[in-house]
Amino acid sequence: METETEFGTTIVGLVADGRVVLASDRRASVGGMVSSKRAEKVFPVGDRAALAFTGVVGDAQALVPKLESEVRLYETRRGRRLSVPALATLTRNVMGEDPVRVQHLLAGVDADGPHLYSFDAGGAALEQPYAADGSGGPTAYGVLENGYDAELELADARAVAADAVAAASERDLASGNGLNVAVVADGDVSVDRYDDPAAVAS
């Protein structure tokens, strides 16, 4: 994740086995210098959604609590859970009202199943089975295109996500130093951290 406006990093997501896998590298850089080798780029939003970020660290850290506050307010007033499509709309609206210098993927699971959203430069939320973003995104997309299958089991989906981040880290100077892998389910968001992407498949 960058501390400037250039979105240098790699984030990926894919829907599999009733859940959503998000992965990112762990390198943060400013200019040509690596400022951190343990950057957190995947953040839970409540107990059944998460955001993976590329962009300005402070903006990313500010967006998550804002979304969580809005979700709690909605659910307290309405007495029901906020759906993931509604959370995607909320995210788009919050970013439109107070622009933040990030690109991100939103993953979540609700009563209708798993969802993965990317957000384009115009602010549109696009639901898709897999996605990548950041400076390593083009390379990661190649791995996702080759490895994704709608019938993937969770372990295989985690391995594909790890391979995508690893491939991007080989080609993109702003990506590297291992990876974070999150699994988003209905009622649980778990995040594992690895120094070596190969460990995900072991």
Automatic annotation (TrEMBL):
Compartment list: Cytoplasm
Activity regulation statement: The formation of the proteasomal ATPase PAN-20S proteasome complex, via the docking of the C-termini of PAN into the intersubunit pockets in the alpha-rings, triggers opening of the gate for substrate entry. Interconversion between the open-gate and close-gate conformations leads to a dynamic regulation of the 20S proteasome proteolysis activity.
Gene3D superfamilies in the record: Glutamine Phosphoribosylpyrophosphate, subunit 1, domain 1
Pfam families: Proteasome
Keyword Cytoplasm: yes
Keyword Transmembrane: no
GO cellular component: cytoplasm; proteasome core complex, beta-subunit complex
EC number: 3.4.25.1
Active site, renumbered: 9 (nucleophile)
Catalytic activity as recorded in UniProt: Cleavage of peptide bonds with very broad specificity
GO molecular function, one term: threonine-type endopeptidase activity
InterPro entries listed in its UniProt record: Ntn_hydrolases_N, Pept_T1A_Psome_bsu_arc, Pept_T1A_subB, Proteasome_sua/b, Proteasome_suB-type
Domain of life the protein comes from: Archaea
GO terms under biological process: proteasomal protein catabolic process
Residue span(s) of the pro-peptide: 1-8
Keywords for the protein's UniProt record, in alphabetical order: Autocatalytic cleavage, Cytoplasm, Hydrolase, Protease, Proteasome, Threonine protease, Zymogen
EC category: hydrolase
Role, per record: Component of the proteasome core, a large protease complex with broad specificity involved in protein degradation.
Subunit structure, as described in the record: The 20S proteasome core is composed of 14 alpha and 14 beta subunits that assemble into four stacked heptameric rings, resulting in a barrel-shaped structure. The two inner rings, each composed of seven catalytic beta subunits, are sandwiched by two outer rings, each composed of seven alpha subunits. The catalytic chamber with the active sites is on the inside of the barrel. Has a gated structure, the ends of the cylinder being occluded by the N-termini of the alpha-subunits. Is capped at one or both ends by the proteasome regulatory ATPase, PAN.
Similarity-based family: Belongs to the peptidase T1B family.
Stated name of the protein: Proteasome subunit beta
